[in-house]
Amino acid sequence: QVQLAESGGGLVQAGGSLRLSCAASGDTFEIKAMGWYRQAPGKQREYVAFITTYGRTGYGDAVKGRFTITGDNAKNTVYLQMNNLKAEDTAVYYCAVDAGGEHVDYWGRGTQVTVSS
Question: How far is CA 90 from CA 22, 42, 63, 72, 112, in A?
Fold first, then answer.
């Protein structure tokens, strides 16, 4: 089992920045990739970004060019730098782990990001 702990959410004005962190613990040897999803009220959960243990990254179309995902394998931690935030970025952001099946095997509890316009 892998446990995930997110931090860094909060309230920010449009155009501002936030940095989310997600630290993994437990059976971290299982981890092949870590990433972020988000869910806004009344909407489905949406893919945001991922990074593999080899450093390959991917982004959802809504955040390309504004968000950057990085990872520290030694700390089993990933970071999501969010710049030029928009009101539509408001959501609960969930950390996620892929343990090798190219789907999410573990979820964090989520951290709220609110962008005021």
Answer: 18, 12, 12, 26, 8
Read off the pLDDT band of 103 (50, 70, 90): confident
Do 76 and 24 contact (CB within 8 A), yes or no? yes
pLDDT-derived band of residue 100, with 50, 70 and 90 as boundaries? Answer: confident
Q: What is the pLDDT of residue 101?
A: 77
β 111-116/67-72 pair status: unpaired
Residue recorded with tokens 């962008």: 115
**CB neighbour list of residue 94: distance below 8 Å, 6 or more residues apart:** 6, 36, 37, 38, 39, 45, 107, 108, 109, 110
Asked if 44 and 111 count as a contact pair (C-beta separation under 8 A), the reply is no
Report whether 79 contacts 11 (CB < 8 A). Answer: no
Q: What whole-number distance in Å separates Cα of residue 115 and Cα of residue 117?
A: 7
